[in-house]
Amino acid sequence: xxxxxxxxxxxxxxxxxxxxxxxxxxxxxxxxxxxxxxxxxxxxxxxxxxxxxxxxxxxxxxxxxxxxxxxxxxxxxxxxxxxxxxxxxxxxxxxxxxxxxxxxxxxxxxxxxxxxxxxxxxxxxxxxxxxxxxxxxxxxxxxxxxxxxxxxxxxxxxxxxxxxxxxxxxxxxxxxxxxxxxxxxxxxxxxxxxxxxxxxxxxxxxxxxxxxxxxxxxxxxx
Length: 222
Known about the structure:
By secondary structure, this protein is mainly α. The protein has 2 domains: 1-62; 64-222, no CATH class. It has helices at 2-19, 24-59, 73-91, 122-137, 141-169, 171-182, 192-215. Helix 4 packs antiparallel against helix 5 (141-169). The longest helix has 36 residues, at 24-59. The radius of gyration is 19 Å and the shape is globular. It starts with a helix and ends in a 7-residue tail after the last helix.
């Protein structure tokens, strides 16, 4: 019972630390003190620390099995996590006026939108994919609650960010810009920048595989 209580308390703290700093009045004060980049860095570090604490609490919750591991789980998760790492690498820090995490959005070119033409919220999509894959792999109650909730909020984040961006850009401007962006979908040779970022994503994947048994205590490949 104590373990479940600790799990619930850390879960609540996780969402408080994620929601309160980004509320407009709080965010304005923090940005005024830390600057935009300082706020982004501090928020990212806080998110990582709280996620690590939440995973720690999940691992110590009572084990209640909901489903067993199937033979197809691991190959699907290996490929899916590689895709998530590549999506994250090719999208982070790139201009994206439709979602969070974009950088230099004024330079966004709807005729060459890259991954944004297919995934309007690539970072949220990568997070949702990560959570769903880990939920499938870990079929006990605590992990399903953890990763299922994270996947739900990542998916719901698409609608929340869309609503916010439409309010900022104006519904008509948003719709026109998205229509132009969708026309940027075309098959072509990947750019040099895309290849470099995709390779970085592959490197991140390898790093996660190496660190997984050290940080989580379980090897990725058996």
